[in-house]
Design goal:
174 residues; two-stranded parallel sheet; 7 helices; extended
Length: 174
């Protein structure tokens, strides 16, 4: 009978219930149904967040808990750690620009802020400059650029990482 119940739950797309329904304690009908529905709602929310993180396209997941604030990471005057960590820049649609030498944590901080935004249910996309340029060129070549740009309008936070490689070749005549 348990397998039959689980199969019905899966047929009805109640995957959270199918996994957890046995662990819900029964005290009265209202409490039991409420607790079952809460199990399913939590599962769906977790799945939604996981889809959002996957759709964002992060190269590596970084968190604020792992971030070490260094003095050589340059941020604009007036920006505070709390302002950034609380994602207060999203409501007024402000841009954040992080500057600093290699290894100062620019990408880690940006990725951690974007991941937190995903976890709070906000739509995020992650691009490196070369990857975004290639995507735009490819979409334009295929005639789907406007559709792609339309999907970006739904994004609440776009993470754009500029990767710079400097190469120096010494002039052999000097």
């Amino acid at each position: 009978m348990d397998e039959q119940i689980e199969q019905m739950m899966r047929t009805l797309k109640l995957g959270g219930l199918a996994k957890e329904w046995r662990s819900v304690e029964y005290m009265n009908p209202e409490q039991y149904v409420t607790d079952l529905l809460m199990v399913e709602m939590r599962e769906r929310e977790a799945n939604r967040i996981n889809r959002m993180v996957k759709t964002a396209g992060f190269q590596v997941l970084k968190t604020l808990d792992d971030f070490e604030w260094k003095s050589d990471l340059e941020i604009f005057v007036g920006l505070t750690r709390e302002y950034m960590e609380d994602l207060q820049f999203l409501a007024p649609k402000e841009n954040l620009v992080f500057m600093g030498a290699v290894g100062t944590g620019k990408t880690h901080l940006a990725t951690a802020l974007a991941l937190k935004a995903c976890q709070e249910g906000r739509w995020v996309r992650f691009f490196t400059a070369p990857a975004l340029a290639n995507i735009l060129l490819e979409k334009n070549r295929r005639g789907t650029l406007n559709n792609f740009l339309g999907t970006l309008k739904k994004v609440e936070l776009m993470l754009y990482i500029q990767i710079t490689f400097l190469s120096y070749t010494r002039n052999p005549t000097s």
